[in-house]
């Protein structure tokens, strides 16, 4: 599997480390079997302004008031978020990897309605890893509290069950290969797949990190990142993270699994909010996340692992041209 490419600067640093570790041995670029079959693609934040008035890919217009806790980045890049406390929203870490939006538009069903609110601060999960999109979750602290309905988030690891109906949403691109974002909030009913089904279509699937969902010829697309996945009760189950190969492809779409990070999310609300929910802050559990994105000093093993990933990624990229 070829992962999302790093920046040139990251490649330069890693290349130097690889040369120091691997020399005097030489590495020959060769395509590993099926290395590009599962090319991973972030549904990346697309620039404003939005320009596509069509109807997420093959979705429908959301009704006014249907998702009052839905927020969209207002300016800079296009991503979604969910109001989970009066002054806290949850989004994807890759949406704010490099820049934080100046403000959000919450309760919006079009690009011109809803409530505008400034963003004061951000907190990314400490084990977020951009290459693997591990622990792809973050919060934004709003400058002022909002008096609109907040969303509840899931804490049950057994939810959603395979085969259950879920809803994705967003202002992202409505055509797989062209256009900007939608001018209206789109929604799409999808089916949650079982862990076995997810692993069968994507061998690197990590059930502790992700939920995978599917719908024929439809799905999340560029600009839908950070938007929620909910069940019929409006419970937030996931955060839009990545697709494989392209939008509406034969592969499922992947969301960060909220239940895995529910303790981290609750602790973040308790530590960052100007008005934390005291009753929910007394007995918050230990840190969570699967550690797949852990940083820190991993020593020689981490360097060698990084080198292997680097050469696979570099060689695969060269052979793609």
TrEMBL record:
Keywords recorded for this protein, A-Z: Disulfide bond, Hydrolase, Protease, Serine protease, Signal, Virulence
Organism: Seminavis robusta
Pfam families cross-referenced by the UniProt entry: Trypsin
Region (Disordered): 273-292
The name this protein goes by in its record: Chymotrypsin-like elastase family member 1
Signal peptide: 1-29
Annotated GO MF terms: serine-type endopeptidase activity
SMART domains cross-referenced by the UniProt entry: Tryp_SPc (SM00020)
InterPro entries: Peptidase_S1 (IPR050430), Peptidase_S1_PA (IPR009003), Peptidase_S1_PA_chymotrypsin (IPR043504), Peptidase_S1A (IPR001314), Trypsin_dom (IPR001254), TRYPSIN_HIS (IPR018114), TRYPSIN_SER (IPR033116)
Domain Peptidase S1, first and last residues per copy: 56-270
Domain of life: Eukaryota
Record-level GO BP terms: proteolysis
Family recorded in the similarity comment: Belongs to the peptidase S1 family.
PANTHER family, per database record: AT26814P-RELATED, POLYSERASE-RELATED
Bias type Acidic residues, positions: 275-290
């Amino acid at each position: 599997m070829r992962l999302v490419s790093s920046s040139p600067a990251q490649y330069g640093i890693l290349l130097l480390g690889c040369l120091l570790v691997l020399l005097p041995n030489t590495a020959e670029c060769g395509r590993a079997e099926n290395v590009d079959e599962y090319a991973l693609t972030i549904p990346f934040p697309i620039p404003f302004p939005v320009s596509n008035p069509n109807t997420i890919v093959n979705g429908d217009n959301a009704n006014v008031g249907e998702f009052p806790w839905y927020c969209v980045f207002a300016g800079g890049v296009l991503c979604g978020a969910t109001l989970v406390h009066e002054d806290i929203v949850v989004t994807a870490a890759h949406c704010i990897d490099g820049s934080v939006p100046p403000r959000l538009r919450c309760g919006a069903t079009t690009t011109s309605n809803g409530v505008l609110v400034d963003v004061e601060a951000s907190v990314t999960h400490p084990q977020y890893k951009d290459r693997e999109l591990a622990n792809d979750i973050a919060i934004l602290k709003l400058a002022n509290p909002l008096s609109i309905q907040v969303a509840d988030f899931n804490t049950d690891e057994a939810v959603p069950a395979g085969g259950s109906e879920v809803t994705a949403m967003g202002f992202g691109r409505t055509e797989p290969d062209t256009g900007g974002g939608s001018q209206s909030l789109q929604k799409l009913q999808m089916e949650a797949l079982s862990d076995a089904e997810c692993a069968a279509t994507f061998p690197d699937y990590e059930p502790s990190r992700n939920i995978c969902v599917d719908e024929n010829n439809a799905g999340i697309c560029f600009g839908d990142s950070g938007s929620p996945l909910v069940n019929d009760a409006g419970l937030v189950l996931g955060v839009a993270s990545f697709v494989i190969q392209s939008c509406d492809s034969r592969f499922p779409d992947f969301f960060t699994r909220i239940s895995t990070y529910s303790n981290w999310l609750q602790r973040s609300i308790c530590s960052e909010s100007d008005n934390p929910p005291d009753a929910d802050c007394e007995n918050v559990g230990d840190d969570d996340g699967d550690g797949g994105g852990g940083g820190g000093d991993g020593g020689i093993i981490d360097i060698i692992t990084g080198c292997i990933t680097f050469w696979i990624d570099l060689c695969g990229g060269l052979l793609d041209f």
